[in-house]
Amino acid sequence: MIKTKRDSLENFIRSQMLGPGACNNRFGFIQEDESNEIVEIINTTPGSLYSTGVLFPKRKVKQNSDSNKESLKDDVDDEKINNDDIDENDKQDDVDIHDRFPELTPSDEDDLYSLSQRFPNTFGMSFCVNSQNISDITLTISGRYYYKIIKDERQKIKVLIDENLADFSMFYSQYEKQLNPYFKLKDNYLTAAKDFSKDYVEVKKTILDINLSITESIARLADGSLDILFAGSIESKYRYLKSYKEKLWNALKSLKEHNQYISEEDKTTILNKISMIEKYETYLSYLEDVLSIYNSKSFGFWKGVLFSKQIPLNQITCNPDINKEIFKPAKYPLFKNIVSFQVADNVESTLSIWMEIAKDSRDLNSCKRYIKIQIENSSTEFEEDNKHYFSIVTEKVNERCFFGMEIKVDSKDLLPYRTNSKTIDTSNEADQLNYLYRSIEDYGVGHFCSVDWTTNNEVKSIKSEFIPSYETPDVEPIPRDKNNYIEDFST
C-alpha cells in the first residue's frame, strides 16, 4: 500500500514537472493526419508548466550600435573557458577553443559554461565502455516539442469526459436546449459546436445561469422552501455552487444554539448536498474547459508532439591514434539537426549532438573509452528587444524549446565510470565522498542532469534523468557487531 501511494506521488510529480500530463490529460485533439504522434494538449504555454528537462533556444540581444556589439563581445568573452580549468589531458588536444559553444571537455566543470542555468541550452552525460568500437552502442534521443493550435483548428480540441460519462450525458440532456447551440457531446468527449469567439460572453452567461439553476434545486427543501443558508445569507446574484458549498462547510464546523453540535441527521444532509455540488461542479468544469478554448486573454492551447531518434553510430569512424576526439555537428551531418521543423519564415527549431571520445589518461593502451554525449538546442536564436522578452511564457521562445528530453545508451560493454583510488586525501571532499560510496558502482555522470542505469541484463543501458530517485534501505534496529567487519585494502 505504501509503495503504491509513493509510486503514485512520484508519477504525479513527474507529470507536473517533466511531463507529459500537467493538465491531467483533460484535453484531446481530433487528428486527421497521423504523421505526428500528439502526446498531449495543454491550455497554456508549455514553458510555464514544465520546469525541468527543457532545452531553450539561444538568446540574442538586438544590437542598435557598434558600441553595443562591443559590449556584447566582452560579455561573451567573460563566459569562455578559463584555461586554468583545463586538465593536462585537455591541453594536449588540438581543439579550437574559438569554436561555437558548447566546447566539449571531459571535465565535470563544463556544466558551468552554459549561457544560463535558468534557461539551459545543452545537457548531456558521460559514460565508459570497454571497447574501441562504438558501432555496437545504441544511442536514442527522445523528447517533445509543441505547436500552438491555430484558430481554425480550435474546434478540433476535445474535452475528455473521463468519469461518470452516463451521468454527465443525463446532465447534458437536461440542459440540451441551452447547450446545443454552443457545445457538441460525442462519445466520451465534448467539443465546441462552432467558433463562438464573438459569443464568448453569451456562452459564459449560459453556463452561469445553469449554475444558478442547479444551486437553487439543491438548496430547495422537501416542503418547497429554500435552505436558510442559501436564501438568507447569499445575495441572489451570487448564489452559485461554490458559494453555497462554502456556507455548508461552515455549518458543519459551527455550533448551534446552546453550544450544541448539529445532529447526525443534519450532518448527513449537509454532506449529501456537498457531494451533489461537487458532482455538478465537475460537469460544469467540462463546459468551462471548452469555453476557455476561446478565451482571448489566455496563452492559447498547445499540442505536444513526441519524437524518438535512434542515431546510427556505425557511420562514425574513430581514429585510434588520437587520445581525444570530438565530433561536431558542423563536420558530421549525422549529428546535425537530428530533429528539425519549420516554425516560421527563416525560423527553425532544431536539435544537434556533440560527442567526445577519450582514452583513459592513466592507461592509453587500454581498450576503455570515455564517451560524452551532449545535446544542444540549435534552433534559430531568439532575438530579444524592448518589446519581446526571453521568457517561459513568450510564444516564440516556446516554439523553439524541447521538453522532456532524454538521452539513452544501450551497450553490452558499459563499465563503471569511476575507479576507486587507493590514495585518499582526507582533506578533499571528493575523495571523502568517493570513499564513503566506494561499494556503489557509478556508471555515468550527468551534465545539467542526473543519470540512471540498468545493468541486470546482458545489454546494459544508461539514460539521463532529471528527477532522480533512490530506494532508501531499511534501518536495522539491532546494532551490528563491528568486530566482525574488517576492511580489505588489498584491492
3D architecture notes:
- The protein has 491 residues and is an alpha+beta fold.
- Among the domains are: 53-64 and 78-138 and 313-465, no CATH class; 178-292, no CATH class.
- It is built from eleven helices and 19 strands.
- Strands 4, 10, 11, 12, 13, 16 and 17 form a seven-stranded antiparallel β-sheet that branches. The chain has a six-stranded antiparallel β-sheet with strand order 2-9-5-15-19-18, with no helix packed on it. Strands 1-6-8-7 form a four-stranded antiparallel β-sheet, with helices on one face.
For this structure, the quaternary state is single chain
Q: Biggest sheet: strands, sense, closure?
A: 7 strands, antiparallel
- Helices, by number, come to 11
Helix and strand sequence: HEEEHHEEEHHEEHHHHEEEEEEHEEHEEE
Given as residue ranges, the uncertain stretches (5+ residues, pLDDT < 50) are: 67-115
Radius of gyration from CA coordinates:
30 Å
**Overall number of strands:** 19
Report the sheet-strand fraction: 15-25%
Give the helix/strand class.
alpha+beta
